Fold this protein.
Amino acid sequence: MSTWRMPPKAKVYEALSTVADQRVTITGLTMAQVQSSSHDKTYDVVWSEDMREITSNDNASYWQGYIGYPIIAVLLKLGKLSFNTHIAELLAGVPWKAVNDQFKRDYDKA
């Protein structure tokens, strides 16, 4: 079993935006789908019943070895991570794909 690296902090903001935009759908006891900010992709997130294992088919989780925003968004939605709903609402509607592309995937600048 491999261990996830910590994601860039900006991915937490992206996950908060995802929750605020209601783009997380719990589809089963251990499954969810997360829609991208541009609404052109849907990511699958799957976890074990004890929540000790979790995976997603987003690029960061699959290729980069860190927890991508879809996993973080699901953990927020399930109440496994606490957050300030007011802060999340301030991030609603951010077009993350466009912003990340504009800054050539420099997430701190984005």
Remarks:
- The first helix runs from residue 9 to 20.
- Residues 61 and 68 are 5 Å apart (CA to CA).
- The chain has a mean pLDDT of 93.
- Strands lie at 24-28, 31-35, 42-47, 54-56.
